Amino acid sequence: MTQWLYRLDPVRPEMVADATDEERAIVAEHLDYLRRLAGAGVVLLAGRTTGEPVSDVHGVVVLDADDEAAAHAVMAADPAVVHGVMRATLHPFRLAVTREGWGLE
Q1: Full-prediction pTM beyond 0.85?
Q2: Which of 2, 30, 54, 69 shows the greatest Cβ crowding within 10 Å of its Cβ?
């Protein structure tokens, strides 16, 4: 397994502070999706930056996948991406330090 990071950027930055009902529902689906994947051992961590300006806020998901195609499939199936409220870009990633110790090889 290798690690991958996908970065999420809101298509409408104002969504961060003033989401529509539809955007809130999609973000709830997105979080449920990530929680399920974390429970299955696929997602290692997920979160977002905070602060101002909202145009600088973005999310990150770090996951384990067999290869780039598998990582891309996880990213592409994220409800926030599927429903077009967030844009995502995939990057190879390697954990260097965790609470448990040094990097994962």
Answers
A1: yes
A2: 30
